[in-house]
Design a protein that fits this description.
3 helices, 6-stranded mixed beta sheet, Hypothetical Protein Mth938, Chain: A, alpha+beta, NDUFAF3/AAMDC, 9 strands, 3-stranded antiparallel beta sheet, MTH938-like_sf
């Protein structure tokens, strides 16, 4: 009925599946024939919109979904934007304790590496910070 209900419902961005990243830049990403403005998190359960964080703000709490799916992840690629920014000691430690090899790199390098590992059917996840 018109005029009844909740109106527009905003949902967290989520693509339920694994897909290669087709393009990045201009503050977002293209994958699975769609585009997303902002950063993304790619895990076995899908591709999710991700908070607009600075690389040094990436911590276990921000990447909680990665740790929830740890049984299906061996490698975590951390795309830190235009330039490589080392991970914090806490995040490195949390990943190591979970049995995940975490590798920081520029977002462009992370996108390329993610696509290769995905094509090899590897247990890979990636947090990709958007670049302009």
């Amino acid at each position: 009925m018109a005029g009844r209900g909740q109106g527009i419902v905003i949902r967290d961005a989520h693509f339920p599946g694994r897909a290669p990243i087709e393009a990045y830049g201009n503050g977002g990403f293209r994958f699975a024939g769609m585009s997303h403005r902002g950063s993304i998190l790619c895990v076995p359960s899908g591709i999710y919109g991700f908070a607009d964080l600075a690389p040094k703000q990436l911590d276990r709490q921000a990447l909680e979904r990665v740790f929830e799916e740890v049984a299906d992840i061996e490698v975590l690629l951390v795309g830190t934007g235009r330039d490589l920014v080392p991970m914090t000691a806490d995040l490195r430690s949390a990943a190591r304790e979970a049995g995940i090899m975490a590798d920081p790199m520029s977002t462009g390098a992370a996108v390329r590496t993610y696509n290769v590992l995905l094509s090899e059917d590897r247990a890979v996840a990636a947090v990709l910070l958007a670049v302009d």
